[in-house]
């Protein structure tokens, strides 16, 4: 999983270790990075020092550990501005709520925050904190700010934490962080980027009107599709998001088209073509009402209730997957199933003609439909790959990484109009 792509060896990572019970995992991360031939320089914050010792960092990296903004020795050897630019990538692991807040605010009151403000290199953070701290609107706002500025984020994962609470906040596993670092360092040449690609994403439910005030709908929150749109944009893709009615803010850097019905969604998708990638995450209603009433259907005492005649909606995924000059190079569908998930999803992949299927178990007891987490099986032409349960953001990040890896630099793009 964490084998380094060839080009990353010999590059330097500047690793900032902050305070937190997960700081010990930074030691395992260093082992993975140095094992892949990377040079690792470390910066230890005052809080980080409470959890790992400078000596262990020094022993693992074979390098001096930087701790103090005002150390004359350090300034003689290398000024903090030079240090901030001495690596190919700055990694903050674990990234606490505090360092995220200080990065978002642009503070520079210790060595770590100063380096993060002074650097001209890409930054990747691996957050770890208590679930309430993670969920707090302040942290989420800081996260959005950092993402919008191009900071890459790995994790956090969902699980039981040292504080005995369960939820998002646990540091991503070191191999996953190492993999993200390798991908960043390898750059577009190793398929880490979607720059120049156009991605079309559908998300949310559709509303199928019965009359001007009533409609048929489903419980889709749109969250997974919005996360995917954001993750693709973070990798440099131009993203068109065609969304049914949801209660979510537009993801930064994404062109959003709001629609109501499946027929409108299909039209908006066709308008967005050509594209390189199509991800159909919308929970499109299977039917619409044959004859939509133009005025509100009245309840008349004693009269029988109205009978709704339903007719099938267009299948957007099948439409986009159909062979033709504008077929995207990669079409990904979703399969929400309640039993024998993998089998049904594999059959759906064949039936719809798409390339990959993201299958998930939406039995009500899983809490997935409309919830924060997802547990998927990725079905491609090479087989079925079960992923561990993780939050929808982590699923999106990982899926976007897989999509980026699919596109080799020599693949022609969909000549999408900008
Ligand atoms: O057929 P089913 O609804 O199970 O297929 C799910 C997949 O097909 C999802 O990717 C969904 O977005 C897509 N779909 C679609 N248009 C439809 C029905 C489903 O794009 N009318």
UniProtKB/TrEMBL annotation:
Residues 199-418 are annotated as: Phosphopantothenate--cysteine ligase. The active site is at residue 163. SUPFAM superfamilies: CoaB-like (SSF102645), Homo-oligomeric flavin-containing Cys decarboxylases, HFCD (SSF52507). Keywords: Decarboxylase, Flavoprotein, FMN, Ligase, Lyase, Magnesium, Metal-binding, Multifunctional enzyme. One of its GO terms (cellular component) is phosphopantothenoylcysteine decarboxylase complex. Residues 1-198 are annotated as: Phosphopantothenoylcysteine decarboxylase. InterPro entries: CoaB-like_sf, CoaBC, DNA/pantothenate-metab_flavo_C, Flavin_trans-like, Flavoprotein. CTP binds at residues 286, 296, 314-317, 334, 348, 352. It catalyses: N-[(R)-4-phosphopantothenoyl]-L-cysteine + H(+) = (R)-4'-phosphopantetheine + CO2; (R)-4'-phosphopantothenate + L-cysteine + CTP = N-[(R)-4-phosphopantothenoyl]-L-cysteine + CMP + diphosphate + H(+). Its cofactor is FMN; Mg(2+). GO terms for biological process: coenzyme A biosynthetic process; pantothenate catabolic process. This is Coenzyme A biosynthesis bifunctional protein CoaBC. The gene is coaBC.
